[in-house]
Amino acid sequence: MNNRQDPKKIIDLAKNGDVKAFGELYKLYFVPVFRYIFSHTRNKADAEDLAQAVFLKVYQSISRFQEQGKSPLAYFFTVARNTVIDHWKKKREITLDSPLEIAEDLSEYLIAEDMHQAIEKKEMARNIQKAIVFLSKDQKEVILLKFMNDFSNQEIAEILGKSEAAVRQLQCRALKFLHQHLKNTI
Amino acid sequence: MSDTNEAMEKLIEKTLQLLDEGRSFSDILNSFPERQQNEAKEIILMINALAAGRSQAIPSQEILSRVLRQIPSITESELSRYPLKRDKKLLKGRLSLDNIIITKIYDFMTMKNWKIWVPVGAMAMVILAVLAYSQIGVKESQYTVEETAPVAQIEMPLVIKPATGKINDAVDTFLQEMTIDQVALASEKEDETLLAADSQEIDNFNQIYDQNEF
């Protein structure tokens, strides 16, 4: 993933109807940000609103990010993380994973595949989503960025401001915890 | 128990490493011994389930289009804070000096990397000022040197008499044409001769002088 392109340029081009720029914007930034927010909110409507807010904030403060020398992707995710935190502060509630909600939300996005496999995956995903709640904040971030968003360890390290070794360690401990939790609950 | 934990950690580390190398799930499973196959399979299934969420959370492009439609409304309100920047073509008539200055300042402050160019420009000004000052100092010292320069020697004007056709007159004229320096040179040579004679006399005296006699 090329995350060194100027997002403002891409956004401006996409705004003006450049199809290629729109595709790049969608692939490079919008899908990862949306996925990240969705994995935290578990609500499609909230995820859409928050993703919109993230893009508007990034566009407004784009010059500030360029001075900081961060990569565009890291900046998007910093804004996304802060937006999600603000969202929860406003709501003032702790969301517990609801298997039914997840099932309903995810079903809209299901890509056509074998029904049996889809149900199995959904069941496993449901159990894992329950267990993720019990991870530490950093472990959860790493797991979601690594497996949900398919980022490399280097990209995750850049987004979270940690070393790659720390990211690997967090992944390892998170998976170990999830495995133990699933074994205990099943 | 701790051995089990350590073994599980190593298994997970190896799985993640092979995954980062791009190995398939079946390759990863086959890389473990038989006694670890079950645990490795559980970890792989878990990772697979987490990754399944990736394909299940794809936003529609319509959402992005909606986002982009919102962006112009943000930038319009931003631009309204800077009416001169918005469109200079709209400004009719001659711009006042105030407007020109404000526009130029705005253009300067909104140009890219102005935080780099301002200090560079300031340093360049300082260097130029130092160079200018050093040049002024050199010229002043030159003037001082010129003022204290010794007065050039005044040569006595030569008086050349018109030719009379007589030899004696020509000789007289020739002698008169000798400059003061030439006369001085001649007298210096005389002094040298006298000095040489004196030193010879001293040598002669030393030869006949006997300290013990006195």
Describe the structure.
The complex is a heterodimer of chains A (186) and B (214). Chain A contains 10 helices and no strands. The longest helix of chain A is centred in the first third of the chain and has 23 residues, at 19-41. Chain A starts with 6 loop residues before the first helix and ends with a helix. Chain A has helices at residues 7-15, 19-41, 44-60, 62-68, 72-91, 99-107, 115-132, 137-148, 153-160, 164-185. With 186 residues, chain A is an all-alpha fold. With 214 residues, chain B is mostly helical. Chain B has 9 helices and no strands. Chain B has helices at 2-20, 25-30, 37-56, 61-79, 83-86, 97-109, 114-147, 167-177, 180-208. In chain B, helix 1 (2-20) packs across helix 3. Classes of the chains: A mainly alpha (186), B mainly alpha (214). The interface between A and B is large, with 47 and 37 residues.
Structure described in brief:
Chain A is mainly α. Chain A has helices at 7-15, 19-41, 44-60, 62-68, 72-91, 99-107, 115-132, 137-148, 153-160, 164-185.
Main sheet attributes: strand count, strand direction, barrel closure of chain B: none
List low-confidence stretches of chain A.
96-112
Shape of chain A: globular
Counting DSSP E segments of at least 2 residues, the number of strands of chain A comes to 0
Structural classification of chain B: mainly alpha
Mean pLDDT of chain B: 70
Low-confidence runs of chain B: 76-92
Beta-strand proportion of chain B? under 5%
Biggest β-sheet of chain A, characterized? none
| Continuous helix count of chain B | 9
The share of residues in extended strands of chain A comes to: under 5%
Helix/strand-derived class of chain A? mainly alpha
Largest interface: A-B, 47 and 37 residues
Q: Describe the oligomeric state of these chains in a short phrase.
A: heterodimer
In whole angstroms, the N-to-C terminal distance of chain B is 125 Å
Quickly list its features:
heterodimer, A: 186 residues, mainly alpha, globular, B: 214 residues, 9 helices, elongated
